[in-house]
Design brief:
Elements: H1 12-38, H2 46-57, E1 65-66, E2 73-74, H3 80-90, H4 95-122, H5 125-136, H6 139-146, H7 150-172, H8 176-190, H9 194-211, H10 215-243, H11 246-252, H12 261-268, H13 277-291, H14 295-302, H15 309-341, H16 349-354, H17 356-381, H18 387-399, E3 405-409, H19 419-427, E4 431-432, H20 447-458, H21 463-472, E5 479-483, H22 489-497, E6 501-505, E7 509-513
Parallel strand pairs: 3-4, 3-5
Antiparallel strand pairs: 1-2, 5-7, 6-7
Helix pairs in contact: 1-4, 1-5, 1-17, 2-3, 2-19, 4-5, 4-7, 5-15, 7-8, 7-9, 7-10, 8-10, 13-15, 14-15, 20-21
Length: 514
């Protein structure tokens, strides 16, 4: 008589290690793959390349201004990433490789840090492992960090996660050793990226309200805040001394400080994959969190939408994987149980681990999400500056007069994410009147109006519209550039008919001179 083999029981430790191993192994690969495919920094990074060069050229002393776009933009950006880039350049590594590979490396490091963060705040290793898997395979979450600008963004996020681990630990079990680490890591956030610094402040306040409102917790919170201010004072004090406090107030106004429930609602139901597994599970997770009164988690994730919408999605990129893990580990088994028995029963995680059908289903879901990330890698590659764009900029650097002024029409409405606008001052070494990057430090309340005007300019269909918008913004330019892949050829032809001279053409781009 044949005996039927029983499936081997899987313990919590083995299950956790398996899911975490899959998350880190494949998560690192899908973050490195876009850099391999692109062969150039993804989307942006031109301004940072120039600021690295400025820092190195000034003997590693912070310059007063950056030479980027030849517009006297204050060198007020948090400098830690630039110091790392400048020291790497001393070893012979080119800025292209620095801005291509360092963001990929730093973004990969967010995976284990995220696991330790979730483990710290939930005290649940299986949940932390599964949340890390959902975080690893959410393609829209890491694109922003993989770009050339990820040299500072990803650096800020690494220290953001690390600082919250120690801040939470300090409030839950106060001791001066963890407080010291919290101070150091919070300081590194401030020196890395402004949005990450703002989110760290918001997160620390939320953590203090829910975990540290004792006398000793409040003392530790005060020490962390004071210590961070003191450790970062050499940087922000130097900037304030050279440019005044308004330089930071101006940059602060470049964020979206309006509150919007509609933006939060849209983000909550956003879908990143064809089959929205993660979205479904995170909605399950919302019910679980509310049912178990873990309100702090939702407040931590959603509060930034009422403070600074521009950076709010950064926190939800960490919140949603946690919710998805809760949803899969707790709500899904309960839902399946209700279908069978018409009773709601919330079991512990080990019930799921003993359910081989659910565990195998999870592996299939993760496999599907990995495939989506592979496909998305090719989408990410396509936002890299094209060979034609780079060729056009190199030609301008070698042939255009140094005092030339360029108006660039690519047809891309969001000028802040337009790689051509951002890289032009770096590769062409000429002034672009339509480049918005860096102006957040000097335009103050006029930053958003300039953004809107530049967006309208990119939609112009005739010469009168461009000249009218250029005049409204007081633009003086000697050359105009068109992307013929996006902008209708008739537009550039109309400028030629009105006396502009064609000086360069490579198929995609035409450069006209007045």
């Amino acid at each position: 008589m044949k005996t039927q083999l029983e499936p081997r029981a899987v313990g919590e430790q083995e299950w956790t290690a398996t899911i975490l191993g899959i998350a880190i192994l494949f998560g690192v690969f899908v973050r490195i793959l876009p850099a391999i495919l692109a062969g150039f920094p993804i989307n942006d990074g031109g301004m940072f390349a120039v600021m690295i060069s400025d820092l190195k050229g000034n003997g590693f002393i912070l310059p007063e201004y950056t030479t980027y776009n030849h517009f006297n933009i204050p060198y007020a950006y948090p400098p830690l990433g630039f110091y790392i880039g400048a020291f790497l350049e001393l070893t012979g590594i080119s800025f292209v490789n620095i801005l291509m590979w360092i963001p990929a490396l730093l973004t990969s490091l967010t995976l284990p840090l995220f696991y330790f963060f979730v483990k710290e705040v939930t005290d649940d290793r299986p949940c932390a492992a599964l949340a890390t898997a959902f975080f690893a395979f959410a393609p829209g979450n890491y694109v922003w960090l993989l770009m050339g600008g990820g040299l500072t963004r990803a650096l800020g996020i690494i220290f953001f996660l690390a600082s919250l681990i120690f801040v939470h630990c300090t409030f839950v079990t106060p001791n001066w050793r963890t407080t010291a680490f919290a101070i150091i890591l919070c300081s590194l956030v401030v020196l890395s990226h402004p949005q990450a610094a703002l989110l760290t402040v918001i997160s620390c306040v939320v953590f203090w309200i829910f975990f540290g409102r004792s006398q000793i917790g409040t003392i530790h919170a005060f020490v962390i805040a004071l210590g961070t201010l003191l450790l970062t004072a050499p940087w922000w004090g130097t900037v304030v001394y050279k440019h005044g406090i308004n330089i930071f107030l101006s940059a602060g106004q470049s964020g979206d400080l309006s509150a919007s429930l509609s933006a939060l609602w849209e983000n909550l139901f956003s879908i990143q994959t064809i089959i929205p597994f993660a979205t479904i599970f995170r909605l399950f997770g919302v019910f679980f969190v509310v049912y178990n009164r873990k309100y702090w988690l939702l407040i931590w994730g959603f509060l930034p939408y009422f403070v600074d919408q521009r950076s709010a999605s950064i926190v939800t990129s960490f919140l949603y994987p946690i919710l998805a893990a809760y949803g899969f580990l707790n709500i899904l088994p309960a839902l399946l149980g209700w279908v069978r028995t018409r009773k709601w029963v919330f079991e512990k995680n080990n019930i799921l681990m003993a359910n081989h059908t659910l565990s195998m289903s999870l592996l299939l879901i993760l496999f599907y999400l990995i495939i989506e990330c592979f496909v998305h890698a090719y989408v990410i590659r396509n936002v890299t500056l094209s060979y034609d764009a780079r060729g056009m900029m190199v030609w301008i650097k070698e042939n255009a007069a140094e005092d030339s002024e360029f108006l660039i029409v690519t047809g891309r409405v969001d000028v802040m994410t337009d790689g051509v606008q951002e890289w032009f001052p770096a590769l062409a070494d000429r002034h672009s009147v339509t480049t918005l990057q860096g102006l957040e430090w000097i335009l103050e309340q006029g930053f958003y109006s300039r953004w809107d005007e530049l967006s309208v300019l990119q939609t112009c269909k005739d010469i009168n519209c461009i000249e009218s918008m250029g005049g409204a913004m007081n633009f003086e330019f000697t050359h105009i550039i068109f992307d013929r892949y996006v902008v209708a050829p008739d537009l550039s032809n109309s400028f030629i008919e009105n006396g502009y001279k064609l000086v360069f053409e490579n198929g995609q781009y035409v450069v006209l001179e007045k």
